[in-house]
Amino acid sequence: MNLKHILDGYKVLDFTHALAGPTTTRLMAEMGADIVKVELPPVGDMSRLLPIKLNGRTSYFVQQNRGKKSICVNLKTPEGRAIIHDLIKQVDVVVENFSPGVAERLGIGWETVKTLNPRAVMCSISALGQQGPLSELPGFDYIAQAYSGITGMIGEPDGAPSLPMIGLGDVNTGVHAACAIGFALLHRERTGEGQYLDISLLDSYFHCHEINVAMYSLTGKSPTRAGHHHFAVCPLGLYKAGDGYVCIIALDHQWPSLCEAMGRPDLVTDERYKTNALRCTRVPEVVAIVQAWVDSLGDTETVLAALEKHRVPCAPVLTIEQVCNHPHMLERGTVRKINDPKLGEFSTPGMPLRFSGFPNNIPLEAAYTGQHNDAVLSEMLGYDAARIKALREAGILHENEDT
Amino acid sequence: MNLKHILDGYKVLDFTHALAGPTTTRLMAEMGADIVKVELPPVGDMSRLLPIKLNGRTSYFVQQNRGKKSICVNLKTPEGRAIIHDLIKQVDVVVENFSPGVAERLGIGWETVKTLNPRAVMCSISALGQQGPLSELPGFDYIAQAYSGITGMIGEPDGAPSLPMIGLGDVNTGVHAACAIGFALLHRERTGEGQYLDISLLDSYFHCHEINVAMYSLTGKSPTRAGHHHFAVCPLGLYKAGDGYVCIIALDHQWPSLCEAMGRPDLVTDERYKTNALRCTRVPEVVAIVQAWVDSLGDTETVLAALEKHRVPCAPVLTIEQVCNHPHMLERGTVRKINDPKLGEFSTPGMPLRFSGFPNNIPLEAAYTGQHNDAVLSEMLGYDAARIKALREAGILHENEDT
User: Fold this and answer.
1) Can A170 be counted among the known catalytic residues?
2) Residues 6+ apart with CB under 8 A from A245
C-alpha cells in the first residue's frame, strides 16, 4: 500500500476549538488524516481571536490548525444539522471539546453519532470530565490544573503557587485524547466496533502525580510545593549563575561525580551527605555548598562544562529566545519554521511523534473560516453548486476570507 | 470477537525503567496488553529503590508497573541475549528508555529488532532525543524541562524559576509514546510493516508552547515567567482567600459576569477595563480590584459560590489531601484505590483514557523482580524446567521475592 502518511485515508470530523481538542486533530493532520473542522458562525474557532495577529490572521490558530479543512455551518438550522449528520456517516472519528451537554444540544452527541455511524470512534474532551459534580462548571486549563492538585505543587513554599505560562494541560490532554483514539481505531480494525472516549484535563493532569498521591495515601502526609529545590531528591534544583539559572541533579550514584566536579572529594566520604536520604535532611546545607561553588565559577557555560565533564546531569534554564536558536533544537526539528500565506514564515514546536516510516514535517496550511465549504459539500456529500449557493444565501454556510 | 480489553492479545517487550517508559507500558497494560518487563540484575528497575517503601515494596514501582510480568535476565551473556532475541521474535511492540546508544550495546537496537521481527513496532524514549548535539547528555525530566524553555516560564518574575513537584514531563512523554505506538500498530494492521519511534521529553515538553514560540518568532519579544497572574489574559490568576488560593479567569465575554459577581456593575462599562487588551495594560489595578473583593468575602468557599453563581470560571487551588478526598475525584475515579499484596490498599491516579467499550479499572498486580522468569520462558519460548534451572544457576536468570 502506498500511503502518504500513517493516517492516510482516515477521515475525522472535528468540532474542536481553542487548544486541547485542536491539539488532538492537529496531531492526526500531521499523520496524514483528512480533517474536516466544523466551525460555528459567526466567529468560528474562538482561537481565531487570539494573538499573534498579522494581516487579520493569528499564529495561535495557524499553529494548531494546519492541514485541516474548514467548513462553517450553522448547526442551529435543520439544513445545517443535516449536512453534519451526512458527514458523520462518512467519517472514522468525531472529536469535540464543547462543555459537557453542548454536543447533545447541537445534535452531535454520542447517541446520535453511533446511531448514524456505529463504526465511528467519538472522543469528547472537557476540562473536568463528562460526569460528576464538577462536570458542568466552566473550565479552562488552569481551572483543571488547580482542581487536580497540580497548581498547589508549583511555586515557592512561602508564597503563592505559580502558574506555568504554557498550555501544559491543554496540549497534553490533546495527546491523551489522540492516544485513546489511536487504540480505539486499532480495536475497530479488529472488531468493526466504534466507541466513545471521555478524556479530561482533570484526569490527564492528575495522571502526572507520580508520588504525591501514594505518599499522602500511605503516610497521611500531604506533600506541597517546594520552590526550586526538590523535596525528595537532593541535590535536585536550580542554582543561580551570573547569567542565568542552572538545573543540577545528583542521585546517589552521581553524588561522588558532583563532589569531584566541585573539587570537593572530601564530601564523597562525608557521613553527613552520604545518601540521598541524609542529604534530604540537610537541604539548605547542600544547596549552600553547591551554590557557593557555582558562585566561584561565575557564568552558566563554565558551570555546565565542569558538570558535563563529570557526567553530572545539568541543564541551563533557557529563555524562549535561547531555546528557539539552540543548535540541538534546530538540528532535531524540535523547533521548526512553517509558512503561512498571511503570516509568512514563523517558528512553532515540531511534530513530537517521530515515525521512521514517514517524514516528520509535511507541508500543511491552515484554512480561513469556511474555506472548504464548497469542496467538502460537493466532494464528500455530492451537493451541486446550486444547492451550495442556496445554503450560503440562507445563511447556513458561512465564509470569512479575512481570517 | 470476545476481547477482555482493547489490547487483548498484543504482546509488548518492555525494557523501560523509572517513569517515562513505564508510563507507556502501564497504559498498555491497563488496556489489556500482555507486557513482559525485562529487568537487569541485580537491582532491576531503579524505581524499586524509590519511596514510599513498606515491607520491602515501593509504591512508586507498584503504581507504574501493575499488570506487567517481570523477567530478570543478564543481557551481558550470550544465553541471556538469546532469550531476549527469541522473545523479540514473538512480540508486537518493543519499548525502551535507556540513554541513547545503550540499547544497541545491549543487543536490542532497532537494527537488531527489525531483523529479528520486521513487524515489530519499536519505541525509544529519551530525555533529549536519539540524535543531535545534546542527545548523549545524561537526562532526567527537569533537565529536558530546562532545555525546552518550560522551566523558565514558571515562577515569579523577580525570583528563581519554580520546579513543578510532579512528573509532568515523564508522564506526558510516556503518553506521547503510547500515542505513537497506537498509530504505528494501526498502520501495521493495514500494511504489515513495523517501524521505529523516537520520542523525547524535550520534544514533548516543547510541544506545549502554545504561544511563546510564535510570539518570539513573529515579534522578537521573548516571553518569560509571570508568577501567578497571566501576561496575556487579565484577569487570569491566583487570589489569596483566607484559607487558600483561588484561580479566577474572565475572558472578554466573562468580564461583565465577574463585575456582577463582585457587585461592581460600574466596571462593566468602565472604558479603562473594557477589553482584555486594555486590562492587560493595567494588570496591577485589575488584580487589586479582584483581590479586594476576595478579601471582603473571606474564605474560598464563599468566593467560589459567588463566582459560580455568575458562571465565572474559578477553582480552588487544592492540596493533595483535598484533591484525594474530593467527591468529584472519587465519583469519577480520577483518584482510585488499588490493592497490593505487600503495601495493602492505597490511592493512585486513575486510568485517564476512558473507553466506553471496556471497564476503566481492571484488577492488576505488580510483580517482584523476575517473578515470571519461569512462566515466560516456558510458555512463550517452550524452555523446559531443567533448562530454566540451569540458566538460574548460571546467574543468567535472577529473582528477588523481597521486592
Assistant:
1) yes
2) A228, A238, A239, A316, A317, B146, B151, B152, B160, B161
What's the CATH superfamily of A236-321? formyl-coa transferase, domain 3 (3.30.1540.10)
Distance from CA of A385 to the nearest CA of B (A): 36
Beta carbons within 10 angstroms of residue A381's beta carbon: 15
Confidence of residue A361 (pLDDT cuts 50, 70, 90): confident
Residues of A in contact with B229 (CB under 8 A): 163
- Using CA coordinates, name the residue in chain A closest to B187: A6
Residues 234-253 of B with CB under 8 A from A: 236-238, 240, 245, 247, 249
- Give the C-alpha distances (Å, rounded to integers) separating A37 from A73, A84, B80: 10, 11, 52
- Is residue B1 scored above 80 in pLDDT? no
> Chain B residues with CB inside 8 Å of A3's CB?
187, 190-191
Residue-wise pLDDT tens digits, A103-124: 999 999 999 999 999 999 999 9
Which residue ranges make up each domain of chain B?
A: 11-207+329-393, 236-319
**Class of B11-207+329-393 in CATH:** alpha beta
Q: Is A321 close to B222, i.e. CB distance below 8 A? A: yes
**pLDDT digit string, tens, across residues B215-266:** 999 999 999 999 999 999 999 999 999 999 999 999 999 999 999 999 999 9
Please tell me whether the interface predicted TM-score (ipTM) of this complex is above 0.95: yes
Q: How many CB pairs under 8 A join A and B?
A: 515
CATH topology of domain B236-319: formyl-coa transferase, domain 3 (3.30.1540)
d(CA A318, CA A315): 8
**pTM for the full model?**
0.98
